[in-house]
Design a protein that fits this description.
Largest sheet: none
Number of helices: 24
Radius of gyration: 23 Å
Number of strands: 0
Helix content: 55-70%
Strand content: under 5%
Shape: globular
Structural class: mainly alpha
Amino acid sequence: MKIFLGILLASLFLCYYALYNQYPLVYNDTGTYILSGFRNFYPDDRPVFYGLFIRHVSLGSSLLLVVFAQGLMVASLLYLLFKNFSNTVNPLLWTLCSSLLLTITTGISFNVSQLIPDVFAPVCFISFALIIFGSKLNSVQITYLSLIFVFSTITHLSNILTITLSAGSVLLIYLVKRNKSLFIKQRLLLAMSLILSCYIVVPGTHYLYDKKFIFSNGSHIFRMEKLIEFGILEDFLKEHCNDQHYSLCDYKDKAELVWGFMWNYDSPANQNGGWKAHEKEYNQIIHDVLSEKKYLKIYIRKSIESAFFQFFTFETGDATKADAEGPPANAIDQCIHADLHSYWANKQVQGKLEFKTLNQLQLFIVFFSSLLILIVYYNKTLNDPELSKIKFLFNSLLLFLFFNAIVCSNLSTIGGRYQSRVIWLIPLFTLIYISNIDFKSGIRKLLKTEN
């Protein structure tokens, strides 16, 4: 009971921004998730699972329940992290302290409090790390982590790619590393099996909806958007439209091909049948563009640049103002009408939210934590098996952050929310390392030295 109450309190810390706002934070995509869950359809550009999560966890009556569920999930994972990767005798105390500290200094509460699946990206990594390296887990906890891991992975397509790349790197390290004592072989196999299951669950679920075994109906649109963003498509069309007529040739000199290609109603992608109607032609254009070496080189260079910029772009608060009559409001009105007046009255709709101070604190804590991590790498006391495990977790985390930046910057565009959703993992794992330090022993040694 003590542990449950402690985790419950930690979850309330993590839900701070929803409580302060007096309503869950929303984003433009929130409306799509709500409608997909309540109207039982999967969107063209994302899985349906988070929408179903909102529908069932809210009990069809309160979206605050969704935020509390997200807070409980994250708080329980923090507790399991300190229990498995720390030598502290009081992991619950560290869970409470870290929840409070991270809420004050990072965007963890912003992500927990928001009705989009961004919070499940770090949840995916934490559950993965616990499954592989958690040596103090019982069968119930392993089952719980496995369920969370699969669900967090399938809530967003970027999570599937990011964790696949991260897990593949960990597997490669396992195969080439002579000292395999850090790994629990059976757990590693379990994690890989769970990842493989995601490649069946997502398209399999979509098949149940419309008999198409696919991940998304919109992958061709996202890839076209990147060709436009990189400045490649415009040059390609100017070079080839005289001898090869694509429908986009009519737009090669117009703003519709640059601004709002994916989302604006007047965009060529949304005319004459919409995304699905253009799939065959756009895939052909993508193939033709990347078949030319000069454009392929530009694409690769721009992709690397985008990933680099995304890695260091992690501003929190990409939902400062919400429209009283926008997509989230319309979805709430249709699906949970009783919540509409609470939505209109919240601080986000009134434009009373501000995250400048939080971003300054987050920038400081991330770079300070990164400095501590560098010290860890050159700390000779890391010969201890437990601390060596922490060091390897740091390596795995850095890989995860790197792959997250690559995937998000290339599936979408550079945006603060994509890296902000996971950047708080750096100070979190720094706190885990600090919790392993024997301060009493250090003080005794210092006193003996002075004497």
